[in-house]
Structure formats: structure tokens, C-alpha cells
From TrEMBL:
SUPFAM superfamilies: UDP-Glycosyltransferase/glycogen phosphorylase. InterPro entries: Glyco_trans_1, Glycosyltransferase_grp1. This is Glycosyl transferase family 1 domain-containing protein. Pfam families: Glycos_transf_1 (PF00534). It comes from Muiribacterium halophilum.
Length: 166
């Protein structure tokens, strides 16, 4: 969900999906976003995969919670990331999140169990973590934590940090 560009790891989506599909044949994939790699991703979807993969393009921001509430797992495969708001949005809708360990992803998810190390085995690591969540479920406490991460709470935490230095 987001920018379909290399830095966001858009080129990793199909290989991860294909590995998960080997384990869970009923798996479907929704790719939401736009960017330089959208056409390549579209061209790389094999004919037999077309009924299992939906490439939507960009969607209005107000539709994100609706989409998140209907999906089973959100995975972020970014090569570089700040603090992705989509993680809190997903957890607030009780959608499990798996991500690559960079930027603020680990902190935003809140449990390193759902974060994978980025190396040459990243495709295998992400797909295995998704399969693990399919098999075993997700830590319900993370959903509760996300309920308390409103913009007001985040802003107050930042103000408190600034006050420590004044």
C-alpha cells in the first residue's frame, strides 16, 4: 500500500506472494499504490495469477481503513522507511502487520517477532513470517497498543520530549 517504487520494496511483493501461495494456495494479494514499478509489476503478473492478484493503483485516503479491515495481513517490504503511519492504521483495524527492520518499522509494529532482518534472504524471511502468522495468529496486545496511538498522543509525547531539553 503506497508508492510502487524500489526504495519501498515494490519489486519484492510478487516473489513474497508466490512463496506464501505455495503454502496457502487460497492466498490473494492486493497491491495498492502507484509509481515507477507499477507497469513492471503488472507485466510480471502471470496469466494464472491474475485471478489472485488485484493491482488497484492509488486509492483515496478515506478508503484505507475500509481496505485494511478487509485484508488478513499487511506487509511492508521497504528498503528505507521513516515512521509508517499505515502500521498504526492497520493495527487499529486489527490487521496484522509484518515488516522489514529499518527506519521506524520495528518501533511502529511494537514487537520484533513480526519484523524481519533485511539481507539477501529477505524474500524467504518475509514469506516465512507471513506463513507463521497464517498458522499461529498475531499478538492481540499490539492492537490495543495501536488504539492508544492517536495523533494527539503522538504530539503530546513529542512535546514532552522537547520540554525535557528546555
Amino acid at each position: 500500500m503506497g508508492n510502487l517504487i524500489s526504495v519501498k520494496g515494490a519489486d519484492r511483493v510478487l516473489p513474497v506472494f508466490r512463496k506464501v501461495k505455495e503454502y496457502a494456495n487460497e492466498t490473494k494479494l492486493i497491491i495498492i499504490g502507484d509509481g515507477d514499478l507499477k507497469e513492471k509489476i503488472s507485466n510480471d503478473i502471470e496469466e494464472k495469477e491474475k485471478e489472485d492478484i488485484l493491482l488497484t493503483g492509488r486509492i483515496p485516503h478515506n478508503e484505507i481503513p475500509i481496505i485494511l479491515s478487509k485484508i488478513d495481513i499487511l506487509f511492508l517490504q521497504s528498503r528505507n522507511e521513516g515512521w509508517p503511519c499505515i502500521i498504526n492504521e492497520a493495527l487499529a483495524t486489527k490487521t496484522p502487520v509484518i515488516g522489514v527492520d529499518n527506519g521506524g518499522i520495528r518501533e511502529a509494529i511494537g514487537d520484533s517477532k513480526y519484523v524481519v532482518y533485511a539481507d539477501e534472504h529477505i524474500i524467504d524471511r518475509l514469506s516465512q513470517k507471513i506463513i507463521e502468522v497464517i498458522k499461529n495468529g498475531y499478538n492481540e496486545e499490539l492492537y490495543l497498543k495501536a488504539q492508544n496511538m492517536t495523533w494527539d498522543v503522538i504530539i503530546q509525547k513529542e512535546i514532552d520530549i522537547y520540554r525535557m531539553f528546555l
